[in-house]
Amino acid sequence: MCAKRTRGGSNRGRQPAVLQDRTHNGHLIHLRQVVKIYENAAGGFRALNGVDLAIERGEFVGIVGRSGSGKSTLMNMITGIDRPTSGEVLIGDTAVHRLSENQMARWRGRNLGIVFQFFQLLPTLSVLENVTLPMDFCRVLPLRERRKRALALLDLVDMAEHAYKLPAALSGGQQQRVAIARALANDPPLLIADEPTGNLDSRTADAVFGLFQRLTAEGKTVVMVTHDLSLAQRIPRTVLIADGEMVALPASGAGSEGQG
Ligand code: ADP
Ligand code: MG
Known about the structure:
The protein is α/β, with parallel strands linked by helices. The protein has a domain at 58-80 and 101-248: Rossmann fold, CATH 3.40.50.300. The chain is built from 7 helices and 10 strands. It has helices spanning 71-79, 101-111, 127-138, 143-156, 172-183, 202-217, 229-232; strands at residues 29-40, 43-55, 60-64, 86-91, 94-95, 112-115, 190-194, 221-225, 237-242, 245-248. The strands form 2 sheets. It has a 6-stranded mixed beta sheet with strand order 6-7-8-3-9-10, sandwiched between helices. It has a 4-stranded antiparallel beta sheet with strand order 2-1-4-5, covered by helices on one side. The radius of gyration is 18 Å and the shape is globular. The protein starts with 28 loop residues before the first strand and ends in a 12-residue tail after the last strand. 42% of the residues are buried. The chain binds adenosine-5'-diphosphate and magnesium ion (MG).
């Protein structure tokens, strides 16, 4: 969601300002030496152990790894849902790890679309209201245009005819399509999806995956965690995480193999 609106800012343009121009070293997402330690009774558990990751604007990147390897923890660093113990999370011109809670909520609402494995639609709101909600929080559009945009997004994911139903009346695949429409509500340049097909049958998973492919083709940057190796093979770049460390990180732009 999107906590407070900046004073006096005209939010009429649909493209959010934050991720537009200046980026850290030219990368859209740049994680530098990210460490995440969860404290528990037995001491600290190192879920991420010095992760470096650079993702470029317009890329479709898959994150794969065994259960418990740190994929969701990594996603939570990028979305600002959780903070690193040390290291930097740079997205566009924003140092995400340094934002206050309020700044974080506003930044996230404008710049990120987040899709979860279990859809997380609000059960008491209609499909249309679920998709309108992020726009209400961020006030990106005038009130009467929000509904129109929500219907257009539902049309994009082939769910317009279900706009007035409650989520419980939908199948898993339909709920996930609504969740993707909701993630697109504020036209974020970046989509983060943590096992978005993990709870879907393979045909439905395929349709949802196709939507992500289409969105990247239209210029969005997509980072998707997946367990599904047949889907992972179709993602242009995949990075593997094991025990909180990047195992294979294909050269991206600067620096290449065989130099050291
Ligand atoms: P993945 O998404 O790859 O399955 P996670 O990032 O969820 O893995 O978890 C990585 C490791 O960190 C696991 O061993 C998990 O048990 C542990 N972990 C995750 N969240 C917490 C937490 N809030 N507190 C303590 N340990 C956690
Ligand atoms: Mg996970």
